[in-house]
Specification:
Number of strands: 13
Distance between the termini: 94 Å
Shape: globular
Order of helices and strands: HHHHHHEEEHEEHHHHHEEEEEEEHEHHH
Radius of gyration: 31 Å
Strand content: 15-25%
Number of helices: 16
Largest sheet: 8 strands, antiparallel
Helix content: 40-55%
Length: 500
């Protein structure tokens, strides 16, 4: 600060009636110098940041074009080089099909003619991944030549034993040379699309324990997440992403002398990676890496954290917008209510934010009144415990004074068998097996590619084809509603004795 500025500052101090000493004035001047310096620095930083952002904005279109070219080229190459029978003969997201194929590989008597080779490798992978499972097999000599693999193992009816009932997706009995522990039971619950049923893992582990002193339950999911229906029972999480891919790699390596089997394993693994797990292509990743490391594109790396956070924000925003738009489209024709867990009324903006947010079609002409308090309605929901998939279908509701107060368990709705028979014959698409709450329900996979709605791989498609995806979903809902209304009319015209 020069002498003239100092005089101006002192006059300003005096005009305010402040009585400052020379030292205090000097400290104040020093402070102002510091503030001025900080302001100049901030201006400089902002200016640099603005320039960087402008540079970033200028290079994004070019990078986008080049990445698309790489991706399209890789996709075309894969189509030309790989004929994959699994991709044309299966509905990739149906877990029953995966359970059947895994059971086929694990069955020592199956027509793959590889005996116990695959089962042995599976057990070895389990032991490598989990010390507790290794401990279960310790000091046991396995007789794999007499092992049994049973798909959809029936273990009883709920009405006979509420503690143990249902179907185990894959059940394996491994015999041993031990007189003390002659059998090891393994129960595998496979979850790709369906939600868990009540006490599912708990029931299956209890069945194993009742039939063998050595046993364990496996909960197989895409990424190895935990079960919500195991209670206090001990079980082990395994995943397609790690356990199954590792196992397939091992059996692929040891079947080089059996080309037909090796090809089948290879094609199934590739289908898992691309259609179920949606793993990125290593080739594409390496090409993008090269692009971003070019000198003119390095500014992209400067804002890596911001870009990641922005994509997360976009991910959530797209899904919030999807539910809002679906709600507004349905609201034009039906009485719709945004809810959490079928019951609690929420704001439309909160549907995606809430753990089990969704929409009830609470319209009289699309409601089947079971009795004075119970009714069946069509509901839409996303489930945070199951990859945030979108589900829609029929659920039972208990009401009090015109308000929904609880969900009704399926076993207490005797008319459901009639509904199932009538409605299944009318729908243009298949529905999932009923669970405790959902009846005649269906997963929604946008644009028919079998990808969970929460998958980040869908961000581009939702943003690029937003209106198309919304209308596709609304069309599915309206088809269901039309067929549901016809079913209601059919059933209500029957004599009560036939209904119940």
């Amino acid at each position: 600060m020069d002498e003239q500025e100092r005089v101006i500052f002192e006059n300003s101090v005096n005009s305010l009636g402040l009585n400052l000493s020379e030292i205090e004035i000097q400290h104040s001047i020093d402070f102002l110098h510091s503030v001025s310096s900080i302001v100049d620095h901030i201006k400089s930083e902002v200016s640099i940041k603005d320039i960087n952002l402008l540079n970033l904005n200028s290079i994004i279109p070019d990078i986008s074009v080049r990445i698309k070219e790489i991706s399209d080229s890789q996709e075309l190459k894969e189509k030309k080089e790989r004929f994959n029978v699994f991709e044309c003969l299966t509905k990739h997201h149906l877990e029953q099909l995966h359970s059947k194929f895994l059971s086929y590989l694990l069955d020592i008597n199956a027509q793959h003619a590889c005996g116990n080779l695959f089962l042995n490798e599976f057990i070895e992978v389990l032991k490598d991944e989990n010390p507790e499972i290794r401990k279960i097999f310790s000091n046991l000599t396995l007789n794999l030549i007499s092992a049994k693999t049973i798909p959809q193992k029936y273990i009883g009816r709920q009405i006979d034993d509420p503690e143990i009932y249902g179907f185990i997706d894959i059940f394996i009995e491994v015999t041993t040379n031990s007189t003390q522990h002659p059998v090891v039971n393994i129960a595998i619950e496979n979850k790709i699309g369906a939600i868990e049923q009540e006490d599912q893992i708990k029931r299956y582990v209890r069945f194993c324990r009742n039939n063998s002193e050595k046993y364990f339950g496996l909960y197989l999911t895409l990424d190895g997440k935990k079960s919500n229906e195991a209670g206090d029972e001990i079980y082990y999480c395994i995943s397609y992403k790690k356990t199954i891919l590792n196992w397939l790699d091992r059996i692929h390596d040891i079947t080089s002398h059996i080309p037909l089997v090796q090809s089948g394993v290879f094609f199934y693994k590739k289908m898992l990676e691309s259609k179920i797990l949606h793993l990125p292509s290593n080739q594409v990743v390496m090409e993008i890496k090269k692009i971003l490391l070019q000198k003119e594109n390095l500014v992209f790396l400067k804002y890596g954290d911001e870009i990641v956070e922005t994509i997360k924000e976009i991910h959530v925003q797209l899904r919030k917008d999807f539910f809002k738009q679906v709600y507004f489209e349905l609201e034009k024709k039906y009485r719709v209510v945004p809810v959490d867990g079928f019951i609690e009324t929420i704001l439309v903006d909160d549907i995606w934010v809430k753990p089990n947010g969704g929409i009830n079609i609470d319209d009289d002409q699309y409601t089947f009144q079971i009795n004075k308090t119970d009714k069946i309605v069509l509901a839409i929901s996303h489930n945070c415990d199951h990859d945030n998939d979108i589900l829609f279908g029929l659920v039972g509701m208990k009401t009090e004074n015109g308000k929904n107060v609880d969900a009704v368990h399926n076993e207490y709705i005797p008319v459901l068998k009639l509904i199932e028979k009538s409605l299944r014959s009318k729908l243009q698409y298949p529905c999932e097996q009923p669970d405790n709450m959902w009846f005649m329900w269906r997963h929604y996979y946008p644009i028919k590619i079998g990808v969970s709605f929460d998958s980040s791989s869908l961000n581009f498609d939702i943003a690029d084809r937003f209106d198309e995806i919304v209308l596709e979903f609304v069309k599915e809902i309206e088809h269901f509603l039309t067929m549901w209304k016809e079913t209601i009319n059919e059933i209500t015209q029957l004599p009560l004795t036939e209904q119940y």
